[in-house]
Amino acid sequence: MSLAQPADLARDTSNGIKSVDTTSSDQRFKSLWVNRYRGATVEDLDPPSALSCKPTDPISNALMNAYERDYTHLTVVSHDKRALLGYLNIPRLKQLLKEGSVASDDPVEKAMQKFQRKGRPYKIISMDTPLEELEEFFGGGVDGSGPQDFAVVTDGSRRFVLGVATKSDLEEFVKRRPA
Fold first, then answer.
1. What distance in Å separates the CA atoms of residue 35 and residue 164, rounded to the nearest whole number?
2. Tell me, what's the pLDDT at 19?
3. Which of 1, 101, 102, 119 has the fewest Cβ atoms nearer than 10 Å?
4. How far is CA 111 from CA 7, 56, 94, 114, in A?
5. pLDDT one-digit tens code per residue, 29-61
6. SS3 164
7. Is the separation of the CB atoms in 143 and 151 below 8 Å?
8. Residue 141: exposed, middle, or buried by beta-carbon count in 10 A (0-12, 13-18, 19+)?
9. Burial level of 39, CB count in 10 A (0-12/13-18/19+)?
10. What does the pLDDT look like over 103-155, one tens digit per residue?
11. What 8-state DSSP symbol labels residue 16?
């Protein structure tokens, strides 16, 4: 899904005179998002429950669990406090296995991508997050860290991982929603 592009700044009116649109680009983008999602939140995507694994689990187990549920991302949590440590990107994991960088009996921690928390702001995505904000997050606009493929959905206090939302979930929602 591509973000909507703003209309041309100069518009031709019926009398042939060009008028200039003084609406800021942020306001145009916001109004396009509001029309697309009409107040929907992440909860309306009905994201599947997150499937988590531990850093010491074998890669083969994580891969099997992902295949059984047709997941593209698995969260990685600590043994003791179930704190979110990172994630496994299954397409990337398959590539690492193919290249021989990791083996199926290696622990997940060898292939997981760790979250960079220290000194970096991050966006909390909860079930109440508006879809406009989720789309902005996927585009890298919320915290300036760059485009994201998925979002970990937590409760508001970040104590529990509730699910994972992907760009494709957002695209499917827009396709299903009547115009």
1. 24
2. 39
3. 119
4. 43, 11, 10, 9
5. 454 555 778 889 999 999 888 889 999 999 999
6. strand
7. no
8. middle
9. exposed
10. 999 999 999 998 876 666 667 899 999 998 898 888 886 565 778 888 889 88
11. S
